[in-house]
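Predict both folds.
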Amino acid sequence: MLPARCPLLALTLACASAAAAAEGSFNVRAYGAVPDGHTLDTAAFARAAAACEAAGGGTLVVPPGEYLTGSVRLYSHMTLQLEAGAELLYSGNPADSPIVASRWEDTSAFIHAPLIYAAGAVDVAVAGRGTLNGQGRNWWWRNGRYDRARSAEIQPARQAWLALYARIEAGARLSAADFKLADDYLRPPLVLFNGCRNVQVEGVTLAESPMWMLHPLYCENVSIRGVTFNSTGPNGDGIDVDSSRDVRISDCFFNTGDDCIVIKSGRNADGRRIDRPTEHVTITNCVMYKGHGAIAVGSETSGGIRDILASNIVSRGTDYGIRIKSERGRGNVIENLRFANFVIDQPRVQAIEITAYYENQPAEPFSDRTPTFRNIAFSGFTITGAASVANIRGLPERALEQIRFTDVTATGNAGLVCEQADDVELHQVRIQVGRGSSFSFSHVTGLELDGVTAPGQSPGEPAVKLDDCEFAKGPVDLSDIRR
């Protein structure tokens, strides 16, 4: 029998009772989860999620501790709440995660479900101060290049995927059974929302993903705020917004093994058949400390990409600041992109790139396989220590259209190069380079230069180099370009 008066015990029981009685709250510990980092908790998480779904929704609470688990599926009207000190560890055993429909490198596929997965859900969220840890080293060797010692081991699965990819491009409709061998090669993302509406991810840390970290696919109304992305492995993109609309990304930090934020919409013939664009995306107040590109658009653009605004971004030491990329074979239109108020420090390759030559496909006549770029604007940029300030390349069969730079100050080894473009405007653009011309234009029509400055330009090099160009306002005297 308990003592009549035991204040500490009474307080403990009262708190436990209050937690258990919280309406709509489902603590995974109450369903058997063991936070020791070794016990496999997949079944316990599934029981908690099932109870939450049966109740019509609620909050799946994960208290502090380490939880080893396979894929955790979320359902409509459900929030996964990771308390401070809680860490989910993704099992490296593919058998712990079922096969689900998705895209892989933006082609329709069936893959192992990621650590967090939702499909067709409404009002679904991941929030808190905890961590989702993909334990990527259990998966990265499947890339085939990351771990050379095991590269031969994964080759049969890789070849199976390449054969399936050819069938998909040819229009075949495949099932999960077709991927039995290939799935050994297809690494899952860390978090996948497939066909969901009203999605929120807030506050959590995503770490060491097997592949892409956060993948909203075919989603509507997505909010991503205050999330930290840390991953060092191959294809470790931070956020891949894929054939989704009405997306808001803000106040996030990125330290990634690949692109930080990427906008995609499907690849080649498969993407054109599905024909779902990514549109109406805002990105603001983010810091990119490391990554391939701070913000990338493409190269998978086959469903079309439009109405993208990115502002108030700081990147340091990424390979690219902004990279807009597609190629022959992708097709569709990339349009209405605006980038404002960027600081891009020490980009290792280029501060800004727009290219239709991502993989330099052979020339072909204009068709639905030809990508179109138009109405792309950059304003309020400070670029320092760039290997190259900007490289802009359209196709002979489809020039870039409506490219505008306003209020840009840049230093770098090489300057701005633009070729195969129409309606190109530079207003108050100052570029100082270590070699060559600050500005080079080739096969550009409708060119307008206003307040262009090239300080420190070598006397032996022209500040502005022109090859087969036409100005928007007739002949222009370039002798007044300030050096």
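Second protein follows, with its predicted structure tokens after the sequence.
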Amino acid sequence: MLDNYTVETAPLFKMLGFETFRFIIVRYNHYSLVSKIQSDLQQLFPQRPTKKLDAQKIDYQSLTKTYYALEKGFLFLENFEILLKKKLDSQNRETPEIALENKRKTDILAGLNLRRDTLAKYPIALMVFVSSSADELYARTIMEQMPDMWSFRSMILDLHTNMDGEPKPITDPLPRTEDNTTIISQDLSELHHLLDLLNNAPESEQAYRLTLYPQIVKTAMDTGRYEKAYEILETWEHQIHENDTLKVWLHKADILKTYGNLHDALELLEKARKLSITRADTYNEGIFCQRIGDVHIL
């Protein structure tokens, strides 16, 4: 499995350049990614305070007390998946002790959901971390148990790092402006280089060309060349492997939204959502539901 940290976090860091309420769900396959993203945010935005809480050790009152006392910045809530699943004993029963634990979980989820509008008055990024070992239905669970928070969400990230042996260290510094707002972009020479490789690749070498398309799209989008990115996506879609269809549609919808073409963006996102349902792909279904909600908010 390849690392995707830089690709996934680039739009997040750019979005967080503006201080406002955010609800961000981060799924990860290794805890080093949790530490990495927390460290990078503290480095990129040193003027913003941070707090870290463990969902296994708090109740709703202590969570909100910490949130309101923070006033602005970042609140990291780790082990969030603990809150999403009802606990039962080995005989599938809810003992009095377990009932108290389940109530603690429910109080946190329901409390955050009910207080969404109050929470949103604070320029705080509430970032919850979900281990990839959690149930694949976690996104649907959040939608069902926290519908108001879900409708106000900002982003879902799915981070993974190489698990063949030790995770690869990620140490490259991230650029920032004088006011600490990040600028995540690739040098234009890299885009030109990738386009040259594509232009010189024979049509018969389809497998090779399919490896270039996602690289070009990412680099074009990072440098603001959305028209070129969309052009490549159109070409990629006509030669696409079935497994990449949803990825291409997601990128195309994001570009359409960027240009204000909300009708076409919604149409494509709905098409992608229905395909996800057909494939019983609940994770991507949640992603597209998120994007659809984002477009409607606009």
